[in-house]
Design brief:
Helix 5 crosses helix 6 and helix 13 packs across helix 14. 51% of the residues are buried. The strands form three sheets. Strands 8-9-10-11-12-13-14-15 form an eight-stranded parallel sheet. The chain has a seven-stranded mixed sheet with strand order 3-2-7-16-17-18-19, with no helix packed on it. The chain folds into two domains: 119 residues, Urease, subunit C, domain 1 (Roll), CATH 2.30.40.10; 288 residues, TIM Barrel (Alpha-Beta Barrel). The chain is an alpha/beta fold. It is 37% helix and 20% strand.
Length: 430
């Protein structure tokens, strides 16, 4: 009989070799727990503790059991920087760049870079863009990502930018992954308009429509040499703030033109890339609580001439997020691989890397209040890894450790050869 005096538990995960709560304590960045179970009620975590204690505190009469014997339980990854929706492929450009410089690739006479993807995205129909982006969402979900940010920016017209943001909304409705939408109309300038004409369109046409349809949570600008100046970025971000969109910045990726000072002035939610950011700017970010989003996969994909200085950022006290930058120029769906690159190439410890891919990613989206860690009251966004130790996540290079994803209390059995929308699902309401 149900015990009406006790709160119910819908699902309990037990038997794990270790639960990585990502709730840091002194001397333990990951809040590693052994001999504990995770109890879930509805979409939220009810308790983390010994199974016997949970059984005493909660009504277990209709509780679903999920055995994680010998496996690792961790929070779902939060990927805080992607460009999920784009048309076409730049595989030939990537391949040509293996033996040629960027200048030599451009000299071949084919469109390259952001403008090449803009042309292919404009040529693609909405249903094709939705289908392709959906396949990318399936990939990231199978690799343990439960929340992902998705930027526009490959349309550069009013109609196409709005279309890309509407596709984000459709993706969110069709897939378990939470899609956080960012307006990045200021990704580049369209070739058919003057700078001032396009700025006018961004501020007076695009942003009002984005706000009216509630199509995005953030406004972002690519502030760098050859893209948007500091003054142009300020105009756009201030207009975004007036429209109710919180500011982010692509900054210091290929030069330092003062974008970090603007990020500090506007107290952006996150500053992303940071390859040319100075130690003084790092200290300011730390003091202001601005999260830095760094992307080892992007540096690897483009053979970046100045990799970001991760250890210096951490030493200066910055809060960091690791993201994939999944886009046309960096086709990377696995944060597990990002963690491996961060550890080997940027000297993150495995613990620092996992924290950056969970709690850090949540902070970069202003969502650390309800996700990124395993704690009472947080969303039940979890993953179970079929590996014997946490360190195997870094050790097994290129491996996908994910066996099961729990998203808001719903179990998804995932594997490399079975798309999540055909997976063996078990809903707590069944």
């Amino acid at each position: 009989m149900p015990d009406l005096a006790k709160p119910k538990v819908d699902l309990i995960i037990s038997g794990a070799a270790e639960v990585l709560t990502c709730v840091s304590t002194r001397g333990d960045l990951l809040g590693r727990r052994t001999g504990v179970a995770v109890a879930i009620t509805g979409e939220h975590i009810a308790q983390v503790g010994p199974a016997s204690d949970i059984a005493e505190q909660f009504d277990m009469s209709h509780t679903q059991q999920l055995e994680a014997r010998g496996k690792i339980v961790a929070p779902g990854f939060v990927d805080s920087h992607t460009h999920l929706v784009f048309g076409g492929s730049r595989a030939w450009e990537f391949g040509a760049g293996m033996t040629r410089t960027a200048k030599e690739v451009a000299a071949l006479g084919f469109p390259t870079g952001i403008q090449a993807t803009v042309a292919m995205t404009r040529a693609a129909k909405a249903d094709a863009l939705l289908f392709d982006a959906g396949s990318r969402v399936e990939q990231i979900f199978r690799h343990g990502t439960t929340t992902v940010e998705s930027k526009s920016g490959y349309g550069l017209t009013v109609e196409k930018e709005i279309e890309l943001l509407r596709i984000n909304r459709l993706l969110a409705a069709r897939h378990p992954v939470d899609i956080v939408s960012t307006f990045l109309g200021a990704h580049d300038f369209p070739q058919e308009l003057s700078r001032e004409a396009y700025l006018d369109s961004l501020i007076h046409e695009m942003l009002p429509q984005v706000a009216a349809e509630k199509l995005a949570e953030f406004c972002d600008v690519y502030c760098d040499t050859g893209y948007y100046s500091v003054d142009e970025a300020r105009r756009i971000l201030e207009a975004g703030l007036a429209a109710g969109l919180r500011p982010k910045l692509h900054v210091d990726a290929y030069s330092n033109i003062g974008g970090s000072a603007l990020a500090e002035e506007l107290k952006v939610v996150s500053a992303d890339h940071l390859n040319f950011t100075t130690p003084a700017e790092m200290r300011n970010y730390a003091a202001l609580g601005i999260t830095g989003v760094v992307m080892p996969g992007l540096d690897f994909a483009v053979r970046h001439p100045k990799p970001f200085e991760a250890r210096r950022m951490l030493a200066e006290g910055m809060s960091l997020a690791l993201a994939t930058d999944l886009c046309a120029g960096c086709w990377l769906a696995s944060i597990q691989l990002v963690i491996q690159l961060a550890c080997r190439l940027y000297q993150f410890s495995p613990e620092e890397a996992l924290l950056a891919a969970t709690v850090g990613g949540a902070k970069a989206l202003g969502l650390d209040h309800d996700r990124g860690s395993i704690a009472q009251g947080k969303l039940a966004d979890l993953q179970i890894w079929n590996i014997p130790t946490f360190e195997d996540l870094v050790y097994r290079i290129g491996n996908n450790a994910v066996e099961t994803v729990i998203k808001k209390g719903i179990i998804y059995r995932v594997s490399e050869d079975t798309a999540h929308d055909r997976a063996d699902r078990r809903c707590l309401d069944d």
